[in-house]
Design a protein that fits this description.
This protein is an alpha+beta fold. It has one domain (9-239): Alpha-Beta Plaits (2-Layer Sandwich), CATH 3.30.70. The chain has helices at 22-40, 69-79, 93-97, 124-129, 150-160, 162-167, 195-205, 208-219, 236-239; strands at 9-16, 43-50, 59-66, 109-117, 137-144, 170-178, 185-192, 223-231. The protein has an 8-stranded antiparallel beta barrel with strand order 1-3-2-8-5-7-6-4, surrounded by 4 helices. Strand 2 (43-50) and strand 3 form a beta hairpin. The chain is globular.
Length: 243
């Protein structure tokens, strides 16, 4: 599988939030969709909360879709322009993204990565055109591989594991290779029509086909770290409406 930096790129954010104001945080992140589209030509792909039983909490996950890598360069030039010249046309970062945040929604930190979509991964407008199914839950998987092996892992996953997961009711929403690494990290995002579909996938991982897949990956030092997500009320894949 080839993964050049000429296709769609995503900003994938993992954000620490406050449990008391979790819903307000998610709504505020959704409100960024209009700003990013107007200022930078960037679309919101999704906003989720991490299911605390499966990973760190409270936590939000956001994905922003850029049509190409050059969009990121233009976005960075605009984002930091206020440092060189302060005027009304160049709002300060805090002023633009946080000044209208509701009470309690200000202090946060997180971890971002840039990921490149595989050629088979639909963009958000493709998904909305497809009239996607309604997902009750989501599963995000971060895969670590030896250097150079992430694209090949995703190709093999599509061939060997995807048909098994699909039979369990899982839908592959997208697969991605992380930038700023030597092709040693991949992300996959899955959707489930109901939570029992997720448990069916977990059972399949421990049945014959899935267990052989897991053991083969372990022999090649390929590992993953997964967690469940639930969508924000206005997340595009949930509402089938772009922000």
């Amino acid at each position: 599988m080839q993964n050049g930096a000429t296709g769609r790129v995503y900003i994938h954010e993992t954000i620490a939030i406050d449990v008391q104001h979790r819903q307000r945080y998610l709504e505020h992140f959704c409100s960024w969709g209009k700003l990013l589209r107007e200022h930078h030509g960037v679309d919101c792909f999704g906003v989720w909360a991490t299911v605390g039983s499966t990973a760190a909490w409270p936590e939000a996950v956001c994905m922003w879709e850029l049509p190409e890598l050059d969009t990121m360069a233009a976005m960075l030039a605009g984002e930091f322009a206020f440092l060189d010249e302060r005027n009304d046309a160049l709002p300060e970062h805090w002023e633009l993204w946080w000044s209208n945040a509701p009470e309690g929604v200000v202090a946060t930190s997180g971890f971002d990565r840039l990921v490149i979509a595989t050629p088979e991964t639909p963009g958000i407008h493709d998904w909305l055109t497809f009239d996607p199914p309604t997902f009750a839950g989501y599963y995000q998987e971060t895969v670590t591989t030896p250097p150079g092996a992430a694209p090949d892992y995703l190709a093999e996953m599509t061939e060997r594991w995807l048909p098994i997961a699909h039979d369990c009711g899982a839908r592959l929403i997208g697969s991605y290779v992380s930038m700023f690494r030597n092709d040693s990290e991949a992300l996959t995002l899955w959707g489930f029509g109901n939570w029992r579909d997720w448990t069916a996938v977990e059972h399949a991982l421990r049945a014959d086909g899935g267990d052989a897949w897991r053991r083969d990956l372990a022999r090649r030092n390929i590992d993953w770290n997964g967690k469940l997500l639930t969508a924000a009320p206005r997340s595009p894949l949930k509402t089938k409406t772009p922000l």
